[in-house]
Amino acid sequence: MKGKPLVSMVSAGLSKFGKLEGLYAREIFAEAAKEAFDRCPNLDPKKDIKALFLGHMGESYEHQGHTGATAADWAGLLHIPATRTETACASSGAALRAGIFAVLSGLCDTVMVGGVEKMTHRTTAEVTEYLAMASDFPFEQWHGITFPGLYALMATAHMHEYGTTEEQLAMVAVKNHHNGFLNPKAHMQKEVTLEKALSSRVIAWPLKLYDCSLITDGGSCVIITKPEIAKKYTDMPIQIIGSGQASDSIGIYERESLTSLIAAKIAARQAYEMAGVRPEDVDVAEVHDCFTIAEIIGYEDLGFCKRGEGGRLVESGETKLDGKLPVNTSGGLKSKGHPVGATGTAQAYEIYLQLTEQAEKRQVKDANIALAHNVGGSGATATVHIFRRE
Amino acid sequence: MSEQAPFTIEQFYKYISQGKLMGGKCKKCGKIHLPPRPLCDKCFSKEFEWIQIQPKGKLLTYTIIYVAPPQFQQMAPYAVGIIQLENDLKIPGMIKEVTLEQIKIGMNLTVAFEASPTTSQWPQWPRYYFKPA
User: Are residues B77 and B125 in the same domain?
Assistant: First the structure.
């Protein structure tokens, strides 16, 4: 069982990430789907794709629910079963897992999983309110706690408990902006200096503007199939060998720890065990950096370093593009952008490029094993997937 | 009377409007739930009794919100935090009646109670907040 491929990724697509003015979510998703179809000429989308699982978080943005069906229709896949998965910012991590279930069950040989969100046409105050809906209403939102506020509560606790500094938080932003600068599809393709990040305006102290991911429009998808038939579609399938998902209390105040996401630790343990892989075997990772503190806590929850050492790990440079374990080569949520429903499969897209050596200027050499860590809200959901070259 | 009140979030806020911080104690396993819930997540019992929680605790962590959602914008910047109460319980809330610079992890806070909101829209929950002891 250990290390046996669950499914194989045979293609992937990503829309441009950014402020996509005049485009509706379903139109953005169609752009991602088109890239996935074009990358895989041996696949006949109408004949071969048996289902769509779509991560999408909020009806509020476009006054549109029921988005699984609309995305399937606009991708040219009318009439296939299309189901939306919603686990806040982990919605398409959950879609990927739902797709794995569908293939492993034997009901579908090949499915598309993806995600989309259209956010930038709304004001920052509106987006702040909609994102907060992924947190507890009666005790968090009701008392004025915003989404950045929840991660700020974790950051303050982490700084107090482990001596993590605002500079170390800013180093995550500097690193990820460097990677995003090299990614032509990233929302904000520019370098940021430590000084600029540290002097940016405060959103929820200690988190500043450059500690926060971007409000972005974007869509993403991957096509997964049974490992036995993957070579029919591509010479370079990428196997998914571990999948984990867990949940936690919606309110962070009910949790034992304010400096760790237990759901992510459980999901990671499941995925590592299934894959027969240890943290030190991972060559490249996409870690959910909705806020800089989230990447630091992510390092610890994934076992990339000991608890409390996340700040020092980013400071060491080991998670830079040329480090021992490059993290967020895509630019992450911080620089590539965070269209919430699209993020999980956008991480899988980056890993597809890395493991098939198509990541161009941000290509990591000889990457064999990769990991994607997708967190919903303030940690009430987490998914972890482990990938390997065939 | 209080014995019969349902162990719900709605009822928790009714007690807040009376100036009381109330939790639900499972009669079977003894676990105290704050906020109360109708099903014990430890032993699945539905038998509870109300217990009054001491409205004081220590600040575990905090943040100062500068970018707020529409309904809180006029208050920003404001502080929110999570306090450690007795019985291993924690709740989040705003920290008021203190200058932002004086807020420190570990400080002693008490829970204060606001009057019910006068709005006719759901939810009509009154708010509590924390202030220096």
Answer: yes
In terms of residue numbers, what domain contains B67? 56-132
Classify residue A57: in a domain, yes or no: yes
The model's pLDDT over A321-357, given as tens digits with 9 standing for 90+, comes to 999 999 999 999 999 999 999 999 999 999 999 999 9
Enclosing H/E stretch for A27: helix A25-38
Are residues B61 and B31 both part of a single domain? no
pTM of the model: 0.97
Distances from the Cα of B106 to the Cα of A256, B59, B102, B103, B132, angstroms: 17, 5, 12, 9, 11
**Quick one: which H or E segment has residue B48?**
strand B48-52
Number of domains making up chain A: 1
Please tell me the distance from the alpha carbon of residue A216 to that of residue A68, in angstroms, as a whole number: 20
- pLDDT value for B3: 53
From the list B62, B72, B123, the residue facing A144 with the nearest CB is: B72
Angle at A340 between CA A115 and CA A279, to 5 degrees: 90
If one counts every other C-beta atom within 10 angstroms of the C-beta of residue A109, the result is: 16
Asked if residue B28 belongs to a domain, the reply is: yes
* Enclosing domain of residue A112: 7-122+214-389
DSSP E strands: which ranges in chain A? 7-14, 52-55, 82-85, 110-117, 202-205, 207-208, 218-225, 238-247, 284-287, 369-376, 381-389
Cβ–Cβ of A146/B68 closer than 8 Å? yes
List B residues 94-133 in contact with A (Cβ-Cβ < 8 A).
94, 105, 123, 125, 127, 129
Instruction: Kindly state whether residue A2 falls inside one of the protein's structural domains.
Output: no
B127 to chain A nearest CA, in Å? 7
Q: Are strands A381-389 and A369-376 parallel, antiparallel or unpaired?
A: antiparallel
Total domains in chain B come to 2
Give the helix, strand, coil percentages of chain A, each rounded to 5: 40, 20, 40
- Three-state DSSP class for A25? helix
Inside any domain, residue B47: yes
Residues of B in contact with A128 (CB under 8 A): 67-69
Q: Is residue A372 part of a domain?
A: yes
Q: Does the active-site annotation cover A143?
A: no
The per-residue pLDDT for range A358-376, each reduced to its tens digit, is 999 999 999 999 999 999 9
| Residue A208 belongs to some domain of the structure | no
Q: Tell me: do B101 and B43 sit in the same domain.
A: no
Q: Tell whether B1 is covered by a domain.
A: no
* Cβ A117 vs Cβ A339: under 8 Å: yes
Residue A325 and residue A283 in contact, taking contact as beta carbons nearer than 8 Å? yes
Instruction: Return the CATH number at A375.
Output: 3.40.47.10
B109/B44 same-domain check: no
Query: Per-residue pLDDT for B2 more than 70?
Result: no
The region, left, alpha or beta by phi > 0 then psi within -120 to 50, assigned to residue B6 is: beta
Under 8 Å between Cβ of A274 and A242: yes
